[in-house]
Backbone:
């Protein structure tokens, strides 16, 4: 799922049924998704740094790298807020005990209704606190992803 700065869901692929041993970062390698991008996505430490997916520096050394991580975190919080608002609006999403196909339909329906409510500026119910970043980061960092991150850091934080 991706969202914009207003917490409007801009994409959702609810057909993935990832088990506990799989990670969402696998989805970002799909050509069908990456071909749709017009910019970059922001991810947490659980994702690899790719040319189109910026993640924090694992061990920021200098001031600009720390500033980059802070800016990324402040921006990325929108997706966490969107998940929280979605779950607060639709408590059924907390524990779906249905077939994957039906769960996909429920998720998609909730996302559409969430967008309608957001665009109409409906009151947002109290949300759960934000979950912490993923503790166990994926160590795979593509060289080109790191180069893009370094260029962004140099352009905006030095």
Residues:
């Amino acid at each position: 799922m991706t969202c914009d700065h207003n917490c409007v869901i801009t994409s959702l692929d609810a057909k993935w049924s990832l088990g506990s041993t799989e990670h969402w970062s696998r989805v970002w390698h799909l050509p069908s998704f990456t071909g749709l991008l017009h910019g970059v996505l922001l991810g947490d430490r659980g994702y690899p740094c790719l040319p189109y997916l910026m993640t924090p520096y694992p061990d920021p050394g200098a001031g600009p790298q720390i500033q980059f991580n802070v800016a990324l975190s402040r921006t990325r919080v929108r997706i966490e807020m969107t998940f929280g608002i979605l779950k607060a609006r639709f408590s059924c999403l907390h524990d779906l005990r249905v077939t994957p196909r039906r769960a996909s339909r429920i998720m998609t329906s909730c996302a559409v209704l969430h967008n309608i409510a957001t665009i109409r500026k409906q009151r947002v119910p109290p949300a759960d606190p934000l979950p912490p970043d993923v503790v166990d980061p994926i160590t795979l960092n593509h060289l080109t992803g790191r180069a893009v991150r370094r260029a962004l850091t140099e352009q905006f934080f030095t």
